[in-house]
Specification:
With about 260 residues, this protein is of the alpha/beta class. It is globular, with a radius of gyration of 18 Å. The protein has helices at about 15-25, 35-50, 65-75, 100-130, 150-170, 190-195, 210-220, 230-240, 245-255, and strands at about 5-10, 30-35, 55-60, 80-85, 135-140, 175-180, 185, 205, 225. The termini are far apart. Strands 3-2-1-4-5-6-9 form a 7-stranded parallel sheet, sandwiched between helices. The relative contact order is 0.13. The chain has one domain: 3-Layer(aba) Sandwich (Rossmann fold), CATH 3.40.50.720.
């Protein structure tokens, strides 16, 4: 496919940052979205200098209810056609649900599910109309089982996986593919923001660049589901075979501080 613009949400750090670098390396023009203007501008300058691609930046808090519509308007104002959408922005809230700050939980649910879905709905018609396009939604291995101590986060990722797989089926034959990317624990700023720096599951965390390379290849091949790493693939299978109560107990153990 000719290299159209790639829209990456949550692009200023972690997995989004690695996606931006990888797509730029392969010559794709970019639209990078995040809340932090300083980091976005720095990344745009870096990628423009090293890979000589066009990089646009849009500063937006995607946890707000109006964010997707405002982002689509900003893109249209610049007369940019998006051919690849990377719905990466997201965060987690750790702790007992009844103790968690509701505003943080609400913002997480808006970002992880509502904005992802709304932005997909806004950009998808143009892709289908052109018979071409790719969408990658960042879910998680958290999507495969309930997660005590991160109940809403795990549930939000289960939504992303279910939505992505259903949408991929709906779009079969249109020229547009949908990929659900399910990384396991990954070394990013996610742990610091969600206060999960010391939980047990971090013992088998992967680095972001490695997981993104796997996701990129799967996206370009049109795969519906991408799980990076042997351990993550194995766990995704085991949680479907093991007794549900056992899976939930083990998940809670992994979510506790070691």
């Amino acid at each position: 496919m000719n290299k159209g613009y790639v829209l990456i949400t949550g692009a200023s750090e972690g997995i989004g940052y690695e996606f931006a670098k990888l797509f730029a390396h392969h010559g794709f023009p970019l639209v990078l979205v995040a809340r932090n203007k300083t980091r976005l501008d720095s990344l745009a300058k870096e990628l423009t200098a090293t890979d000589h691609v066009d990089v646009r930046t849009i500063v937006k808090d995607l946890s707000l209810p109006t964010a997707a519509e405002e982002l689509k308007t900003a893109i249209d104002d610049q007369k940019i056609a998006i051919e690849i959408l990377i719905n990466n922005a997201g965060f987690g809230v750790h702790g007992l649900f009844h103790h968690a700050d509701w505003k943080a939980t609400e913002a997480m649910l808006n970002l992880n599910m509502i904005t992802l879905t709304h932005l997909t709905r806004l950009l998808l018609p143009d892709m289908v109309g052109k018979d071409r396009g790719k969408i990658l939604n960042v879910a998680s291995t958290a999507a495969f089982q309930p997660g005590p101590l991160m109940a809403c986060y795990f549930a939000s990722k289960a939504y992303v996986l279910s939505f992505s797989e259903a949408l991929a089926n709906e779009l079969s034959g249109t020229g547009v593919t949908v990929t659900a990317f399910c990384p396991g624990p990954t070394r990013t700023q996610f742990q610091k923001r969600s206060n999960t720096e010391n939980i047990r599951e971090n013992s088998f965390a992967m680095d972001a660049a490695t997981t993104v390379a796997v996701a990129y290849n799967g996206l370009m091949m049109g795969k519906t589901l991408v799980i990076p790493g042997f351990t993550n693939k194995l766990l995704a299978i085991l949680v479907r075979l093991a007794p549900r109560k056992l899976v939930i107990r083990i998940t809670r153990y992994l979510e506790e501080n070691g």
